[in-house]
Amino acid sequence: MKFRQEKRCGQYSWLSQRKARPILLTRQECEIRKMTCEMSTREKVTVLDLMIKWFNNNPFSPVEMIPEACIGILNDMQSAAILKQVSFKRTSILRQSVARLSLYIRRKRAKFTNKPEVFYIQY
């Protein structure tokens, strides 16, 4: 019976030997809290889904990478939200600039030809 208990402990020895820092840095915690306060509940659910996908794709990543990955995903979500708000302004500006460019291309330009120099002969 004692042999089986030692065997069970040996199965999880990798977990006890793994030195990890489970403490979240204060800077990281403040960044995560600040970003999540600005988000809607729908965006928070999306971030959680992306974090679950990240965990599934990186099962053996170190513990220190988890807050960094979370901050990266939150930054991506925040920049996507900003781009959605700004995209309407940018599309109108793009349309205006394309219209100006097309007018510039269609405009008739004055053609300058090289005129010969005229020499006057004085008597």
Describe the structure.
- With 123 residues, this protein is mainly α.
- The protein has a domain at 34-87.
- Helices cover 70% and strands 0% of the residues.
- It is built from 5 helices and no strands.
- It has helices at residues 2-11, 13-17, 26-37, 41-57, 65-106.
- Helix 4 packs across helix 5 (65-106).
- It is elongated and about 120 Å long.
- The chain starts with a helix and ends in a 17-residue tail after the last helix.
Largest sheet: none
The low-confidence runs, each spanning 5 or more residues with pLDDT under 50, are none
Shape descriptor: elongated
- Helical region count? 5
SSE pattern: HHHHH
Write the layout of secondary structure elements.
Layout: H1 2-11, H2 13-17, H3 26-37, H4 41-57, H5 65-106
Please summarize what this structure is.
The chain has a domain at 34-87.
Task: List descriptors.
single chain, 123 residues, mainly alpha, 5 helices, elongated
